Amino acid sequence: MTNNDTLRRLRYTFDINDDNMIKIFLLADYNATREQVSAWLKKDEDDNFKEIYDNELAIFLNGFISYKRGKKEGPSPVPEKHLTNNIVLRKLKIALNMRDDEMLKIFDLADLKISKGELSALFRKPSDSRYRKCKDQFLRNFLYGLQHKYRK
Fold it and tell me: How far apart are CA 103 and CA 145, in angstroms?
């Protein structure tokens, strides 16, 4: 799953217009232009399409956390230079203030049955022996479940 796919799906699911997309980036102290946002949201085949890099998507997700939960005092979190699906999933969990049982319901909405243990393995440190990599299909199903819940 590409970063652009993730950004497009979040925009659609939460019905975020261009102005709010720019506002979300600003909440993470990044000045995104309307042209940048538009190019990131274009279809891959479009001539004006631009890839959104890990660092920029991390900035968006940090801003999304502030957008959904309110901006914290102090400096903005430092965005990751390299994103994994595990990090994206964790940031969405934080932004939407979800507990594990709520996340399992989201996966159920996408017809993906996973256990609480499987879910917790996605949030462990990579050095932990019980850590599991979040594959594209897991993230895609989670985003689909979010869409089903918030976009009825």
Answer: 9
In terms of DSSP H, where are the helices of 42-84? 54-69
Sign of CA dihedral 23, 38, 30, 133: positive
Integer angstrom CA distances of residue 102 from 4, 8, 28, 89, 131: 25, 23, 26, 13, 21
With tokens 């102090």, the residue in question is: 74
Instruction: Select from 119, 127, 67 the least CA-distant residue to 97.
Output: 67
Tokens describing residue 18: 């261009």
Q: How many CB atoms lie within 10 A of CB 152?
A: 5
**CB-CB neighbours of 8 under 10 Å:** 17
Neighbours of 151 (CB within 10 A): 10
Q: What is the pLDDT of residue 71?
A: 86
Q: Residues 12-66: pLDDT tens digits?
A: 999 999 999 999 999 999 999 999 999 999 999 999 999 999 999 999 999 999 9
Q: Tally helices (H) and strands (E) across the chain.
A: 8, 0
Question: What is the C-alpha to C-alpha distance for residues 80 and 70, in angstroms, rounded to an integer?
Answer: 20
Q: How far apart are CA 21 and CA 26, in angstroms?
A: 9
